[in-house]
Specification:
Blueprint (H helix, E strand, L loop, with lengths): L8 E7 L4 H10 L4 E6 L5 H12 L3 E7 H6 L5 H6 L3 E5 L16 E5 L3 E5 L5 H5 L3 E7 L2 H17 L8 E2 L4 H5 L5 E7 L2 E4 L5 E5 L6 E5 L1 H9 L11 E7 L1 E3 L3 E6 L5 E4 L1
Parallel strand pairs: 2-3, 3-4, 8-9, 12-15
Antiparallel strand pairs: 1-7, 2-5, 5-6, 6-7, 9-13, 10-11, 11-12, 13-16, 14-15
Helix pairs in contact: 1-2
Length: 268
């Protein structure tokens, strides 16, 4: 009789607040050679930074996201990852027979060093960690299972494409800004004025009158911005870079509104 002893390790986590995020962070931090991620939504700052840190240590990192979610979800970290030289692609899945509807890249898995598989319903988001009922599995030492997921990742990766190039716009060129309403943009320039409201929201104006552009960082984002040591006085004479989805509000005009503290930075 031939007896096969299989050393298989499976860890199970549930959310909210069941240790799933910490478990993923641990595996990303310990990666030695490569990380492949196929995730529907990636908005979590710590997980995104862990991917960047792995890249900076020499780990080969590839991140595949759903194209629609990357473009439409306010806190998607694909631009942040791109800026940090992480290899990112998006996949739009396939269309229906009529071409009227399209699917989504709804996977949530990661493969680390070709031997660790992370999968389950758990998206890499704040909501998945602290609000939703989710599950996460970390499976180690299952070469057959891991290779099947790697094969699927490579198929989706080759079908994917780099995220759309984000235009860099002048905040004082209203006609050009209006051409990009509804899109993710980067806006760069010196502010005309700024103030913090009684509610703790930051308003930065570029220009005056009906064609002015306004950036609004809501109170939640302001608190995080201040905790990072951001000096509001630097807004007075510095060039500012803002990123986000540009809207043309019927009442207030051209705006980017967000709670993401990473949406603004001072250009030195």
């Amino acid at each position: 009789m031939l007896i096969l002893l299989i050393s298989l390790s499976v860890q199970v986590f549930f959310s909210p607040n069941g240790g799933a995020k910490e478990a993923v962070l641990k595996e990303l931090t310990n990666a030695k050679n490569n990380i492949d991620v196929a995730i529907y939504i990636l908005t979590d700052r710590e997980l995104s930074q862990a991917l960047v840190s792995a890249k900076e240590k020499g780990v080969k990192v590839r991140v595949l996201l759903d194209s629609k979610s990357a473009e439409e979800i306010e806190y998607s970290k694909h631009l942040f990852l791109q800026k940090k030289k992480v290899n990112v692609r998006v996949n739009s899945a396939q269309q229906s027979d009529t071409g009227k509807y399209s699917g989504i890249m709804h996977n949530k898995f990661a493969i680390i060093d070709n031997k660790i598989l992370i999968t389950g319903s758990f998206n890499w988001t704040h909501s998945a960690e602290e609000l939703n009922n989710e599950n996460l599995l970390i499976i180690k030492e299952s070469k057959e299972l891991t290779s099947k997921f790697e094969k699927e990742f490579l198929k989706l990766w080759h079908e994917g494409k780099p995220p759309r190039v984000t235009p860099i716009l002048d905040p004082y060129n209203a006609s050009e800004l209006k051409k990009h309403t509804g899109e993710w943009v980067i806006i760069s320039g010196k502010a005309t004025s700024w103030n913090v409201s009684h509610s703790g929201n930051l308003f930065i104006d570029f220009g005056e009158g009906k064609d002015k552009f306004t950036f609004i960082l809501w109170n939640e984002g302001m608190e995080k911005l201040k905790s990072k040591g951001f000096n509001l006085k630097d807004l007075n004479n510095s060039k500012i870079e803002i990123k986000g989805r540009l809207i043309d509000h019927k009442k207030y005009g051209l705006e980017i509104t967000t709670s993401d503290p990473d949406a603004i930075r001072i250009l030195k």
